[in-house]
Amino acid sequence: MIVDNSKESILRGAEIIKSGGLVAFPTETVYGLGGNSLDATAVAKIFHAKRRPDFDPLITHIASFEMLDRIARIKDQRTFDLITKLWPGSLTVIVPKRDIIPSLVTSGLDTMAVRMPDHPTALELIAQSTGAVAAPSANPFGYLSPTTAEHVETGLGDRIDMVIDGGTCAVGVESTVLDLTKDIPLILRPGGMPIETLRSVLGKVDVLNRTTLTPSAPGQLPMHYSPRKPLYIVDSLDQIPGYVQEDSKGRLKRTAFLSFKGEGDLSSFGAKEILSSSGDFVEAAANLFVALHKLDSSPVDCIYAEPVPTEGLGVAVMDRIYKASEK
Ligand code: TXA
Ligand code: MG
């Protein structure tokens, strides 16, 4: 059931979370599927609703620095300085956890993922419930992330107690996940907080190399964020196979194109989405999942996508397009 984000709705949502239920809520990145992070049974319901394998740990969302101290063991100045500067925001940090966080939240790891989202509805819901809300993106496991309340309702509506509508998410890609337990901070997932911003605060920052993935870097599973239609990355329109182009029976009409700036002749595609006609990475990120959801639900057989330059938020956009593609 979708409700508005009035104070009353948020308070009702907070009651649901306090009593162990699930509420989907907007953040600035994507919609989250929230449950009480201090209650293992509530957390188990999240995994069940998403059909998510339980080896993939969740992010705990907080609304205050006091709560951070109750759930995480943070001693180093570097972490404090970073989060004071960048929270609330699209940055998730991996830090040592305290026992109050059930091991189901972290899949048995002694570290946890935590972030303070930059969205008034999210902050209010967290503060009015238990102060610590575990929330993965509110999509069925492996499917595209939701950036509208309708995306959530379509994917999970019958499995959750409430969806709070906060409009379309402004950032549009998930938070950047940064492991601060390493000597050199390590980006595990590029996301809404650009690498350039992190480097300007921290100096050296490493980025996880996908080819060295191990089970201790979960959530990096290659089948994440996939549309149901096959998606292929092509460097130019010329690379789209001839049989798609040449079929006299309107074959191209059953083909969709995800374009960065809308360059070239896209008129014969059955569906097309342009991420940012001015080539703006922030706008492209904000439009990405809305565009992919639209193309996926249009009457086409497959989706072609062109690469986005990997600067600023373009890194996160390209990471998601890559994960959505057929390997
Ligand atoms: O923007 C976001 O981050 C959204 C909104 C709802 O906040 N949430 C989100 O959650 O994307 P989820 O569960 O889809 O992704 C969480 C990521 C996964 O890649 C997971 O593997 C990683 O965080 N993660 C969580 N705990 C971890 C830990 N202790 N060590 C390493 N990675 C961890
Ligand atoms: Mg997710």
Structural features:
327 residues; alpha/beta; 11-stranded mixed β-sheet; 31% helix; binds threonylcarbamoyladenylate; binds magnesium ion
Summarize, please.
This protein has helices at residues 7-18, 40-50, 65-71, 77-86, 103-106, 120-128, 149-156, 195-202, 242-246, 281-296, 314-324; strands at 2-3, 23-25, 32-36, 59-62, 91-96, 111-115, 132-134, 162-164, 176-179, 186-189, 206-207, 231-233, 255-259, 271-274, 302-305.
Topology at a glance:
Elements lengths: L1 E2 L3 H12 L4 E3 L6 E5 L3 H11 L8 E4 L2 H7 L5 H10 L4 E6 L6 H4 L4 E5 L4 H9 L3 E3 L14 H8 L5 E3 L11 E4 L6 E4 L5 H8 L3 E2 L23 E3 L8 H5 L8 E5 L11 E4 L6 H16 L5 E4 L8 H11 L3
Bound molecules: threonylcarbamoyladenylate and magnesium ion.
Strand order within the widest beta sheet: 1-8-2-3-7-4-6-5-9-10-11
- Tally of helical runs: 11
* Helix share bin: 25-40%
Mean pLDDT: 92
Bound compounds, each kind once, are: threonylcarbamoyladenylate, magnesium ion
Number of separate strands: 15
Strand content: 15-25%
Tertiary shape: globular
Main beta sheet strand tally, sense and closure: 11 strands, mixed
Order of helices and strands: EHEEHEHHEHEHEHEEEHEEHEEHEH
Structural class: alpha/beta
Radius of gyration: 20 Å
Regions with little confidence, pLDDT below 50 for 5+ residues: 211-219
- The CA-CA distance between the termini, in Å, is 36 Å
